[in-house]
């Protein structure tokens, strides 16, 4: 990483922290407005938000635990070697297979993926990871029963191919915009 890239990264992190506070403020204002104009709808919305929070807390705890393990046992050089700029085919395989094997809602993966990105993971690999999450292994037998084996194999192959192509496009665009 050159000196210019090292200078840019702290600015990116600061703007992300600021945008998080802005988003929290906007959501808080929206709740206050809802409570002011329609207290019952505000209460229903808040209860729904708490139900969702209750549902995702266990998943978030697992993700935070994995992030702690990542920080403790894996150094940045190791991450960069596997999913960084010089990762090559191995990085693509890790991203594509990892996306297929991952479960749960995508947003619970955001903190860990953001952390990997800070440690040098390529944007294209992260895009491929998220794209292949649409392949759900437990649902493949059901898909075969409804649509047939040929359709399922072709569709799954096209999703993997599309994930790779979109990852390549994002890698190229990232290089263009960073220059």
If you had to describe this structure to a student in words, what would you say it looks like?
The protein has 8 helices and no strands. The mean pLDDT is 83. α4 (88-101) packs parallel to α6, α6 (123-132) packs antiparallel against α8 (149-178) and α7 crosses α8. The chain is globular, with a radius of gyration of 20 Å. The longest helix has 35 residues, at 3-37. It is an all-alpha fold. It has a domain at 56-178. It has helices at residues 3-37, 39-73, 76-83, 88-101, 110-118, 123-132, 140-147, 149-178.
Biggest sheet descriptor: none
Structural class label: mainly alpha
Query: Which spans have pLDDT < 50 for at least 5 consecutive residues?
Result: none
General form: globular
Task: Let me know the average pLDDT.
Answer: 83
- First-residue to last-residue Cα separation: 13 Å
How much is the radius of gyration in Å?
20 Å
Number of DSSP E strands? 0
Q: Bin the helical content.
A: over 70%
Number of helices: 8
Into which percentage range does the β-strand content fall? under 5%
Topology order in helix (H) and strand (E) letters: HHHHHHHH
